[in-house]
């Protein structure tokens, strides 16, 4: 499967190491991780905001699911989650570190059947939650 991976790029990057872990785990499980952080070509390409938007929307259009690290606020991640849920209608796993004190109500209060919100403490828990979510996505495709 192609999985879009969302995490803050320009905002609060306190949980960036977990975004990288998510990408690595998805690849380790035999899936394709679509993310600016996973792309090998990003450093070679001069990026402007329009190019980034078009690329990311294209990646969302190719994806069968979205996995987002939501521990730190990010307008971009919120937009991508909304796009996945309401435009693409694909499953979304929102992962929130237990140390997070304030998660957006737009995530925690969302009752969409396509949205799964999970908390984690460490990489082992992250992998367990990710495996379970992806297994459910595999069986529904």
Alpha carbon gap, first and last residue:
9 Å
The whole-number mean of residue pLDDT values reads: 90
What is the oligomeric state here? single chain
Element string (H = helix, E = strand): EHEHEHEHEH
Number of helices: 5
CATH architecture: 3-Layer(aba) Sandwich
Strand order of the largest sheet: 2-1-3-4-5
Major sheet size, sense and barrel closure: 5 strands, parallel
CATH secondary-structure class = Alpha Beta
Shape: globular
Percent strand: 15-25%
Uncertain runs are none
Q: Could you please describe the fold and organization of this structure?
A:
This protein starts with a strand and ends with a helix. By secondary structure, the protein is an alpha/beta fold. The longest helix is centred in the C-terminal third of the chain and has 18 residues, at 123-140. Strands 2-1-3-4-5 form a five-stranded parallel sheet, with helices on both faces. It is globular and about 35 Å long. It has helices spanning 16-28, 49-62, 75-88, 105-108, 123-140, and strands at residues 2-6, 32-34, 65-69, 92-97, 115-120. It has a single domain (2-140), classed as Rossmann fold (3-Layer(aba) Sandwich), CATH 3.40.50.
How would you sum up this structure in a few lines?
By secondary structure, the chain is α/β, with parallel strands linked by helices.
Write the layout of secondary structure elements.
Layout: E1 2-6, H1 16-28, E2 32-34, H2 49-62, E3 65-69, H3 75-88, E4 92-97, H4 105-108, E5 115-120, H5 123-140
Parallel strand pairs: 1-2, 1-3, 3-4, 4-5
């Amino acid at each position: 499967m192609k999985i879009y991976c969302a995490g803050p790029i320009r905002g609060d990057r306190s949980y960036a190491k977990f975004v990288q872990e998510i990408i690595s785990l998805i690849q380790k499980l035999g899936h394709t991780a679509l993310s600016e952080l996973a792309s090998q070509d990003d450093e070679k390409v001069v990026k402007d905001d329009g190019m980034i938007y078009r690329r990311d929307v294209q990646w969302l259009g190719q994806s069968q699911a979205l996995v987002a690290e939501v521990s730190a606020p990010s307008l971009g991640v919120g937009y991508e989650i909304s796009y996945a849920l309401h435009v693409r209608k694909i499953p979304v796993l929102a992962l929130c570190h237990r140390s997070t004190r304030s998660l957006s109500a737009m995530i925690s209060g969302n009752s969409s059947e396509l949205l799964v919100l999970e908390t984690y403490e460490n990489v082992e828990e992250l992998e367990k939650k990710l495996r379970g979510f992806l297994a459910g996505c595999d069986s529904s495709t």
